Input
Amino acid sequence: MTITSPLWGAELDHIRLDSADPAKLSAFYRDAFAMARQPLADGSILLRGAGRRLIIGTGAASSQPYSAFRFADQARLATYKAHLTARGVNPMPSPTPLFADGAFAVADPDGRQMVFGLINDTYDVEDETVGRHPPGRLQHVVVATANLAPMMAFYEDTLGFVATDHVLRDDEDDHAGGQTLTAVFYRSTPEHHSFAMFLSDDARPDHHAYEVSCWNDVRDWADHMATLEIKLWWGPGRHGPGNNLFFMVEDSDGHKVEISAELENMADDDPVRQWPHNERSLNLWGPGWMRV
Output
C-alpha cells in the first residue's frame, strides 16, 4: 500500500504560543532552547534555532492558537488546497508571517487553526548565532480535546493525517469488555507522528517537541537545562508509541516542552497499532503522565 493523502510530505514548521507576558516567555525559549529572538511587525516575537521556529504573541497564558505545516513546493500546496475545498472546507487567511503568499488556515472542531503554506524567505535567513546552537528540530505538536471523535474525523477524513497508534482504556463498568479511545498519533511523513491528540475534559495544548539525533543529545540538552536550573518535569524515559527517548520541561507559562530522540519511522503499509492506556505505554522506563 502506498499512502496517497495529499497532505503526505507536509512537515511541522512552527507553532504559535500566546502569553500574558510574552517578553518573559520568549526569554525562556531564548535561553532554554537556544533560540535567537526577533521582534515582528505585528508585535509578536519570533524565536529561531537550527531547525526550529516558534512565534510568541500576547494572549491567554499557555494557549496555542495555531500550528503551521510547510509543503515542499507550490504545486503540492495548490493540490492540497483543492482537496480541502472539494470537501467543503473554506480556507481562511493565514495568521503567520513566516509563510509566503498563498498560505491559508483552517479551523478544527475545537477552534484551533492549522496553517499550510510555503516558507517565506524573508524569515528563513539564519543569523550568525543560530548555527552555533545545539540541534533540535521542531518535530511534533500535541493537543488535548474533549471531542475526540469529531476531531479524529476532521484530522483523518478532511485533513488527511494518517493514524499510526491508538491508546485504549478498558471501561471498568462495561462487562462486555468495551474500551475508550484516549489518544491518537498521526503522521504526515514516515516519522511516527507530527501531530497527536489526547482525550481530556477540555480543549487545550498538551506539548510540543524538538527532535535531536541521539541519546547523547538528550544528555547534553538535560545538562543545558541544569545550567539554567530548569528541572526536568518528566523523564528521562522512553515512550511506547513512537519508541522515542525523551524528557520534558515546563516553560514559564506551564506549557510542556519535550526533547525527543530516535522517533521511529513507519512503513506505508504499517497498520494502526493499539496500546493499553497505562503508565507503561506512556513511559516504558517508569512513571507516566496520565492525562485522564
